[in-house]
């Protein structure tokens, strides 16, 4: 019953639903483009790790692969399009329980003939290479002549940027079409094989290898065409076999794997707003299909495998926003995401050297090679007509500490000593070495100058509080894990002692950086009302925005979320209030984190409102919000808001802590939580909190501030608790 | 009154009309794609000489440049598309008199609102860089909110093959959008500048630089948007200025140049079938806009600048089928086309050396560099599933002699001694040297082995009659122009003496090659009925076709056309009859040449039928015959059929000859004919043939076999003539 539903066809929402209705399995992502063509429709298939750097570009792009989803359907001579004729009934849904995308249309052609058209599609969760599709067409008013043309279409580009050269086209046994391609610069080889279960006429022209099936079908009889496709790349070690099973058989096998996923990774919410459960299911479904499962050479792009936004690059989003969902559900996958960083320690160290630092300076954006991939230019400046340079590659360094934070989070949750010995301690050491070299001694105080914090509307600032605290944490944890390295220990201790950590002023305000509190304030109501659109940049240049108290997202709030015990509650409250007023929430990373910190601060209603708004980032009514793909970090943050916000889990202490504090609209929440090799089932009901696990070992934890012991089941009566802070 | 008219909108004909309704000027070609997007619609803009060799490919492609023709129109929230809503009236025409493409639609949106939309577009014939467009929208039923988005769209590719890297995007004065691009391999620079005459909001994303204009317009008021664009490339020496004039002013200036063209280059036919005049106008219009006017670095591609078929490559089509239109109208342009070959003598000599020959072996297909550009593979083989090698680059050598033939034709028509001294004699010499080295001595007889003649269904044959005769002519003419070159003269004389020139057998049949007459014959009715589609290759492999008496076009007929005096009339008749029965006419070069030779042979009705069928190659009802562009050579041949066929001009003797022999349906023909620096006006009326020129010099010519003298005007009464052979 988990369904993303499109009730009516609207051209304007084509690419938003195209992103939402992506089917995939972490290896492969196939956008929910309609089978037939429409103007502006972006068709897309992506394989994790398959990037290419186009000629003349400085950054790699997630490659839009040759398409197998398109079907050109001609019914009695008329090309099927919902723009033409009349759509009598329309229904499209992605069944997240099974991973199948279904569309059913009753259509009347311009000639007045009626047809029932059903389209089905899924990517196998059992065999990661397989895409299956099925088309069923029934003539309702007369006999029909149906023509269906489909195959492998390598005319696909990334918005006009070609990534692939065609190496060979073959047809085997007058049945199986096989296209082989190679990415132009990165030299990855892609093989796409496809076949349909009816005889057709083959053509190979203009980068398309096609078959056209033509049949005559009596009224009320069903024409069915099944198409199976297999995608394989040079990143795959094993060979991919072409499936012998039918659509239905493949689907049944895939469904079983999906059922297992939902049983363990799903979060159940009982809310008076049923949308909450849907938004959570949507988040979990997409987190699952965006994340590679068995290949540490790949991480998660900012849009997962749903679109070409941010060119498929990997940001801090992965470690801070996406990894936790896996860490507390499938910790092996979290480990693999960290291994991706470890794999590219070499490139990070090279980037540090190039920039005059020690240790590891991870690229702000990365892809397959582990090199810096941040584009040189961003949007056009309407005043000068020129494009604006992106400073993140040079100055947005907090990512380094974010990775270290994720290493510690992983270690805390799993106690994986092997990982720490193999990778973790070294990652901490190298990232810490970076910070030590990054700091500047100013009159005996160590300062970190000229950075960008998470708030990207404030550039080139000194002593960004978020960055300094994170750097401090990074070096502190590195020291814990590298005590025997005397040379490092000496440097680290000096760094920790002398690094400037901004604290609250007399008014109780922690400055975001050295100059922020001195800047002018403007009324942001207009921009907050259009949040997420970066509308401020249409009225002000980046330079002007930089000189005002305008936040894209609030650094301090982020810091409060990551270190829930570090600041006194009244300081959190005061600064939350101050900075939120100055925050447009133009970053999709903002809202859900605010929900968590508002909940911590006891503002439950406000927290819930932020949560609901966060859910609308990809699911709201704005038609083009997700054209380039879904906001992967935001989806991770929705899950964080439930587990670390409303369910009140806190992993920052020695023991696991839990102190649920649900919104008024919620009656219950239940989820599983992996901790120290155990899986804890958490069930929060109106009056009880029940924790259970399948082993008998004793787990100490803190519930609403009191130490408790969990063996198999522990039930706490909440009626006696004061659950507001 | 010269108009290409589309009476109703039909998706199926989109790309055929897109080719037919190309606007251009020889420098620039802009396909007649509709302003709004449709599935499968191919939008295209091409500049002569701008090719790029994509990564992994062996051949260059005519580059599909960033688009300026697209307008996304949103009317009261609904995206305008003729697939949606209802089209009440529709009219589209390309006015060949003025070069303007016009579309007028009365459209009712899905919401039931009515609008009048008029679209106008032309490429200036005065300033070759300029493209002008105008959109007029009138709300007919209510006030309207109109949004128009347009700009420079560099998402254009050649069917998924990207040719351009984006170098820079700029907006000047919040008005002028400028995109700079570079072809990836050939490193040609392209600048596209555009602006609209209303204020809009600019965006630059995904290779699109756009402005969006939004206005509210009262019912029955007209919203007008003019868009001017300028295209310039690194092949241009002079700078291109952005025009200050309006659409109307630019159009008026361009029209004047068009009027001059039609006055001199137009052919007037009085026929009971008005389609004949239209087809001729269509041919002349397109010949004019496909041919570069002032740059010998560029020649004419097989589809002109109307599409991407044959990748924009230059074949023998140019010299044999297209050049004559210019030679006898604007001889300077014919000279320039020959200079293109002379410019690439070096590459032709290199190709000869690479293949073990002397002299100049011109590439079967060429582009900007003058190197061989023939693709390695053609269509897929349905039996083996593999693609089939193209043998033309290795064996289709007659092109060498075709170029030499065109040099002689040019010299005969112009007497241009300077050209012969500068280029012509050397071209003849080098091409002749090739043939001398190409021949093989077999028992004292020189033979030319393993070639392909114009009939490409017969490969790897020995002593192709067309090739041998053409080679003989080539060497003979080279000898005439290089008598002082003793070494060459000795070789040439030996070659001329010993080269095997096939003659008729006892049955009067001249063999097409050594083995053709021994091959089996099959009934071709089925394939002749579907001529032009190469349907034979769906039933037979190329190998099988090669072993049967199946012609794509008839080599002998081609030879009869080029040398009208060489064979006795009864031999022509017999062989015409024999070979035509075995010719599918799958080549678009076939029909019009048959028309000429049938007319020579006295089969007037048959000739006229071939002529009419030739006119249908691009203008017939088959919806996809011209999707990839028009058949440039076929358009040239339509003109040839009139001038060298029905009007009976013969330039193969010492004197110009003329012996008109019109189809029954024709009452009159009139055209100008440039000869030896004079322009002769030819007017053929029912009973008179009138020739006139503006000078008083005496020109000797042969009319119906009788020597005559033309000073200013010469009128021959045809009633006394027996005009059938």
From TrEMBL, chains A, B:
| Ranges of residues in domain Glycoside hydrolase family 65 C-terminal | 651-710
Q: Where is the Glycoside hydrolase family 65 N-terminal domain?
A: 6-234
Q: What Pfam families does the annotation carry?
A: Glyco_hydro_65C, Glyco_hydro_65m, Glyco_hydro_65N
Is this entry keyworded Transferase? yes
Q: Which GO terms describe its molecular function?
A: hydrolase activity
Which domain of life does the UniProt lineage start with? Bacteria
Which parts of the sequence belong to the Glycoside hydrolase family 65 central catalytic domain?
282-639
InterPro entries assigned to the protein according to its UniProt record, in alphabetical order: 6-hairpin_glycosidase_sf, 6hp_glycosidase-like_sf, Gal_mutarotase_sf_dom, GH65_N, Glyco_hydro_65_C, Glyco_hydro_65_M, Glyco_hydro_65_N, Malt_Pase/Glycosyl_Hdrlase
Keywords for this protein: Glycosyltransferase, Hydrolase, Transferase
Family stated for the protein in its record: Belongs to the glycosyl hydrolase 65 family.
What name is this protein filed under? Glycoside hydrolase family 65 protein
Organism, as annotated: Listeria cossartiae subsp. cayugensis
């Amino acid at each position: 019953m988990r369904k993303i539903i499109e009730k009516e066809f609207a051209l304007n929402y084509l690419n938003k639903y195209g992103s939402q209705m992506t089917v995939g399995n972490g290896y492969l992502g196939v956008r929910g483009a309609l089978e037939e063509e429409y103007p502006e429709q972006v068709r897309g298939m992506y394989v994790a790790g398959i990037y290419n750097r186009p000629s003349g570009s400085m950054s790699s792009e997630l490659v839009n692969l040759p398409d197998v989803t398109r079907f050109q359907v001609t019914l009695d001579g008329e090309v099927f399009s919902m723009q033409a004729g009349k759509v009598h009934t329309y229904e499209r849904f992605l069944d997240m329980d099974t991973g199948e995308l279904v569309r059913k249309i009753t259509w009347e052609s311009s000639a007045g003939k009626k047809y029932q058209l059903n389209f089905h599609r899924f990517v196998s969760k059992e065999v990661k290479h397989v895409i299956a599709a099925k088309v069923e067409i029934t003539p309702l008013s007369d006999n029909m002549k149906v023509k269906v043309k489909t195959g492998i279409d390598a005319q696909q580009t990334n918005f006009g940027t070609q990534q692939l050269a065609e190496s060979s086209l073959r047809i085997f046994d007058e049945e199986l079409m096989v296209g082989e391609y190679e990415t132009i610069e990165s030299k990855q080889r892609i093989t796409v094989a496809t076949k349909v279960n009816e005889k057709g006429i083959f053509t190979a022209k203009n980068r398309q290898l096609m078959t056209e099936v033509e049949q005559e079908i009596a009224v009320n009889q069903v024409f069915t065409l099944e198409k199976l496709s297999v995608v394989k790349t040079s990143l795959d070690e094993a060979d991919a076999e072409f499936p012998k099973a039918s659509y239905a058989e493949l689907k049944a096998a895939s469904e079983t794997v999906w059922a297992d996923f939902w049983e363990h990774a799903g979060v159940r919410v009982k809310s008076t707003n049923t949308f909450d459960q849907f938004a959570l299911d949507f988040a979990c479904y997409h987190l699952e299909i965006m994340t590679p499962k068995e290949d540490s050479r790949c991480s998660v792009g900012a849009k997962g495998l749903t679109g070409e936004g941010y060119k498929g690059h990997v940001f801090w989003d992965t470690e801070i926003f996406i990894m936790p969902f896996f860490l507390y559900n499938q910790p092996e996958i979290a480990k693999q995401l960290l291994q991706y960083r470890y794999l590219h320690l070499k490139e990070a160290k090279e980037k540090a050297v190039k920039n005059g630092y020690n240790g590891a300076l991870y690229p702000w954006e990365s892809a397959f090679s582990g090199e810096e991939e941040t584009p040189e230019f961003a949007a056009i400046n309407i005043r000068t007509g020129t494009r604006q340079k992106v400073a993140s590659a040079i100055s947005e360094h907090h990512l380094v500490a974010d990775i270290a934070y994720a290493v510690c989070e992983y270690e805390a949750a799993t106690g994986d000593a092997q990982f720490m010995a193999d990778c973790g301690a070294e990652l901490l050491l190298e990232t810490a070495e970076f910070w030590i070299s990054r700091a500047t001694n100013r009159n005996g105080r160590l300062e970190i100058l000229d950075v960008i914090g998470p708030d990207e509307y404030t550039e080139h600032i000194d002593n960004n509080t978020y960055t300094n605290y994170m750097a401090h944490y990074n070096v502190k944890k590195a020291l814990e894990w590298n005590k025997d390295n005397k040379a490092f220990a000496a440097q680290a201790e000096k760094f920790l002692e002398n690094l400037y950590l901004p604290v609250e002023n007399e008014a109780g305000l922690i400055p975001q950086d050295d100059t922020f509190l001195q800047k002018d304030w403007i009324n942001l109501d207009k921009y907050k009302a259009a949040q997420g659109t970066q509308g401020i940049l249409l009225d002000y240049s980046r330079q002007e925005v930089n000189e005002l108290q305008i936040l894209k997202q609030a650094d301090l709030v982020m810091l409060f979320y990551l270190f829930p015990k570090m600041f006194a509650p009244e300081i959190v409250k005061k600064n939350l209030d101050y900075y939120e007023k100055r925050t447009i929430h133009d970053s999709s990373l903002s809202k859900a984190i605010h929900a968590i910190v508002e909940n911590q601060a006891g503002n439950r209603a406000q927290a819930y409102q932020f949560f609901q708004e966060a859910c609308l980032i990809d699911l709201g009514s704005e038609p083009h919000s997700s054209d380039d793909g879904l906001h992967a970090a935001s989806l991770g943050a929705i899950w964080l808001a439930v587990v670390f916000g409303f369910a009140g889990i806190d992993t920052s202490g020695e023991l696991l802590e839990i102190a649920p504090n649900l919104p008024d609209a919620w009656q219950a929440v239940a989820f599983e939580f992996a901790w120290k090799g155990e899986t804890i089932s958490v069930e929060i009901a109106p009056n009880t909190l029940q924790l259970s696990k399948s082993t008998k070992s004793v787990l100490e934890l803190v519930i609403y501030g009191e130490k408790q012991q969990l063996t198999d089941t522990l039930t706490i009566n909440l009626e006696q608790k004061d659950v507001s802070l």
